[in-house]
UniProtKB/TrEMBL annotation:
This is Acyl-CoA synthetase (AMP-forming)/AMP-acid ligase II. Residues 245-320 form the AMP-binding enzyme C-terminal domain. PANTHER family: 2-SUCCINYLBENZOATE--COA LIGASE, CHLOROPLASTIC_PEROXISOMAL, ACYL-COA SYNTHETASE. InterPro entries: AMP-bd_C, AMP-bd_C_sf, AMP-dep_synth/lig_dom, ANL_N_sf. Residues 1-195 form the AMP-dependent synthetase/ligase domain. It comes from Asanoa iriomotensis. The lineage of its organism: Bacteria, Bacillati, Actinomycetota, Actinomycetes, Micromonosporales.
């Protein structure tokens, strides 16, 4: 349950940075509006008196054509969408110089995809928004200038003006900087609760702090680094493997169009690191070659023990890869 105060607090807090959306600009809506990320940008642009352009469904070509024909200044895309747009065979034929802000979030953006997108949209400032529906939805922002600092570009940014963010241990005590714990968030943007579920609400919101279920750490400059969903952490041979880290390495291989790393039951290791890979059109690579690519860039226990090739990955309507579905189908 989100109040008007919740959603306006988040929108005004993001706009207060002066770098979130273009005041009076033209915002392209291509992500589903039942998902709060797109609805939140609609509210923020509405506050600035801007123009809204709606597409009935996402297609890479449709996004590019709309940017050109409507002189779009701002767009929100999830990383899966960004990858498909910049990978469109006809992408280079479109003049996308009108775009001033590309807001992304919803899942981790592989560094290779981010670099390619920034090169394709050279006039756009990239803004990563981290949060969740229960936070209406923004907790932290990685602003355009932060993307130019290599050690910050992979982070989720700093707490937005309306938000307080901590990283805590299981007992709720804040952990030292650099230590991994659960990300918790407080502020007037925290939800009123889960409808008809008081026990779940009490478990999620404790002493005013929303427990996100995300594992992360805070660096010395106050930048949050989200390493994985706690439920997606793979425990193999008593070592923790953050699946998002392996995702990012695999995504950097030129033959990989998409990938998802999950943990599967293993009699010897408890869980094994398993990669589901979608190859780029016309590309060819073997499982051993991909494992070798990872071995050159990761500790040995993080390298996928098994690699599976698939035609596509299951995604939600919001564009997130459904890792739980992948795990359930293979257990």
């Amino acid at each position: 349950m989100l109040t008007h105060d919740n959603v306006l607090t988040s929108a005004l807090g993001c706009l207060a940075t002066g770098q979130f959306l273009t005041p009076g600009g033209t915002l392209l809506h291509v992500a589903p509006m039942f998902h709060l990320a797109d609805l939140a940008t609609w509210i923020a642009m509405l506050v600035t008196g801007g123009t809204h352009v709606m597409l009935p469904a996402f297609t890479p070509g449709g996004v590019l054509a709309a940017i050109v024909s409507h002189k779009v200044t701002d767009v929100l895309l999830v990383p899966t969408m960004v990858q498909l747009v910049v990978g469109d065979p006809d992408a280079s034929r479109h003049d996308v110089s009108s775009l001033k802000h590309l807001v992304y979030g919803g899942s981790t953006m592989p560094p290779a995809v981010l670099a390619r997108a920034r090169a394709f949209f050279p006039d756009a400032g990239f803004v990563q928004a981290y949060g969740m529906t229960e936070l209406a939805p923004v907790a932290t922002l990685l602003l355009p200038a932060d993307h130019d600092v290599p050690e910050l570009a992979g982070s989720a940014g700093r707490a937005a003006p309306h938000s307080a963010v901590r990283v805590v241990a299981a007992d709720g005590v804040e952990v030292p900087r650099g230590a991994v714990g659960e990300v918790v968030v407080s502020g007037d943007h925290v939800m009123a609760g889960y409808w008809g579920r008081p026990d779940e609400t009490a478990h999620a919101v404790r002493d005013g702090w929303m427990h996100t279920g995300d594992a992360g750490f805070m660096d010395d400059r106050g930048y949050l680094h989200v390493v994985d969903r706690i439920k997606d952490v793979i425990v193999t041979g008593a070592e923790n493997v953050f699946s998002s880290e392996v995702d990012g390495v695999l995504a950097a291989h030129p033959a990989v169009a998409g990938c998802a790393v999950i943990g599967l039951p293993d009699g010897q290791w408890g869980e094994r690191v398993h990669a589901v890979v979608v190859l780029a059109q016309g590309a060819g690579v073997t499982a051993d070659e991909l494992r070798g690519f990872c071995r050159d860039r990761l500790a040995g226990y993080k390298v996928p023990r098994t690699v599976e090739f698939a035609d596509a990955l299951p995604v939600s309507a919001a564009g997130k890869v459904l890792k739980r579905q992948l795990r359930d189908e293979r257990r």
